[in-house]
């Protein structure tokens, strides 16, 4: 990872290098790029759904999703053929919650993932699976096995990331920027609420982007791009000058991010349609079986 800059280090993240983006441990293990993208997307969906069920704040869920994405980055990262997306998702949620002011117990995490994995098909996340308690009941023995796997995967993630779990997400930054630009009224209105809500919505959507926006661009840039795109859509007038430069974002980067954000929804829709009637593989055995069937 490229270390964050010396200035404004509290608002920056370590970014992926060109080598890390060009090769991954999964591709070196023979996983086709399209399958790797699908597994990553499915793992992010599970992470989002688990965070909601665990009643975690969206910013902490976003941090867990970034940790999940970082883990599979580069040839030195994890491989979906050795570290299942479901297990890495659970450990990422556990790590992010542990680092917050409101951690979650291993039992809570294990119970939630047993519940999510009980669904006949998992492409409908975050919609809940059918309420069949027998399908997701964890016996004491099953819980201890799941707990041991959770803690083992946590150790693997921390070692792979060199214990660098710092994640700055752009959500609060975006709201601060909106106030700085003077487009959020002191008295809440439907327009200002819509502007803030849609801006945060784009930032949440970017977590699933195939361009891996959260590990290739700083949170300040993501916040500016979400504001720019939302303001155009809801027809809110922003300063006529190049205001984004005040937040250290150039025109070229802004243009790329706006296009990337606009393309996310279509890519996600296509990814969901790719697995009709069945679930995308999120465990090691499922991935190996899928590769065997393709070959």
Explain what you see:
The protein is an all-alpha fold. It is built from 13 helices and no strands. The chain has helices at 18-22, 25-28, 33-53, 58-71, 85-98, 106-116, 133-136, 140-160, 171-180, 190-205, 219-234, 251-273, 284-294. The longest helix has 23 residues, at 251-273. The model has no long low-confidence stretch (mean pLDDT 89).
Could you name the key traits of this structure?
295 residues, 13 helices, mainly alpha, 0% strand
Overall spatial form: globular
Biggest pleated-sheet summary:
none
Averaged pLDDT, please?
A: 89
In total, the number of strands is 0
Determine the structural class based on helices, strands and strand pairing: mainly alpha
Radius of gyration from CA coordinates: 20 Å
Could you state the order of secondary-structure elements as H and E?
HHHHHHHHHHHHH
Topology (elements, then pairings):
Blueprint: H1 18-22, H2 25-28, H3 33-53, H4 58-71, H5 85-98, H6 106-116, H7 133-136, H8 140-160, H9 171-180, H10 190-205, H11 219-234, H12 251-273, H13 284-294
Helix pairs in contact: 3-4, 3-5, 3-6, 4-5, 5-6, 5-8, 6-8, 9-10, 9-11, 10-11, 11-12
A few lines on this structure:
The protein is an all-alpha fold and 295 residues long. It is 58% helix and 0% strand. It is built from 13 helices and no strands.
């Amino acid at each position: 990872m490229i270390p964050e800059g010396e200035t404004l280090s509290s608002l920056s993240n370590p970014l992926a290098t060109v080598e890390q983006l060009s090769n991954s441990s999964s591709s070196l293990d023979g996983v086709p790029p399209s399958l790797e993208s699908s597994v990553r997307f499915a793992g992010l969906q599970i992470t989002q759904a688990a965070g909601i069920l665990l009643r975690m704040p969206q910013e902490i869920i976003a941090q867990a999703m970034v940790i999940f994405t970082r883990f599979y980055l580069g040839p030195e990262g994890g491989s979906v053929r050795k570290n299942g997306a479901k297990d890495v998702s659970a450990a990422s949620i556990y790590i992010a919650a542990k680092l917050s002011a409101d951690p979650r117990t291993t039992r809570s995490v294990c119970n939630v993932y047993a519940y999510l994995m009980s669904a006949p098909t998992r492409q409908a996340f975050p919609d809940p699976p059918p309420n069949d308690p027998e399908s997701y009941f964890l016996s004491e023995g099953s819980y201890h096995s799941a707990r041991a796997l959770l803690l083992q995967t946590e150790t693997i993630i921390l070692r792979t990331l060199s214990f660098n779990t710092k994640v700055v997400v752009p959500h609060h930054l975006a709201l601060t920027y909106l106030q700085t630009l003077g487009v959020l009224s002191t008295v809440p209105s439907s327009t200002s609420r819509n502007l803030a809500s849609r801006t945060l919505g784009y930032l949440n959507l970017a977590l699933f982007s195939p361009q891996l926006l959260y590990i290739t661009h700083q949170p300040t840039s993501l916040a500016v791009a979400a504001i720019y795109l939302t303001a155009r859509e809801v027809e809110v007038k922003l300063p006529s000058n190049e205001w984004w430069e005040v937040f250290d974002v150039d025109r070229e980067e802004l243009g790329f991010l706006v296009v990337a954000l606009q393309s996310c929804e279509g890519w996600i829709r296509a990814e969901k349609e790719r697995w009709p009637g069945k679930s995308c593989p999120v465990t090691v055995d499922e991935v190996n079986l899928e590769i065997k069937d393709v070959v």
